[in-house]
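Recap from last week: sequence in, structure out.
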Amino acid sequence: MAVKITSDEIRELLQGSEYPPILRADEAAELLRVPLKTLYVWVASGRLSRCFTKQGKRLLFSRDRLVHAIFNGKEK
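Predicted structure tokens:
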């Protein structure tokens, strides 16, 4: 059974985190402890569709939404 995590739990876990609220792709991959290539595959597949915005050629990720999506599935 998958464990669901609430927004409050995410904020509590990340309180005082070294990671800022908005992350570059390399920081997002580091936070999730996955290769950068894996992060890009997840973006391309739609798994992280509501976790990032594109600024030119760069992807910027919402730290809290990213953690939520990984623990609870794709954001709705």
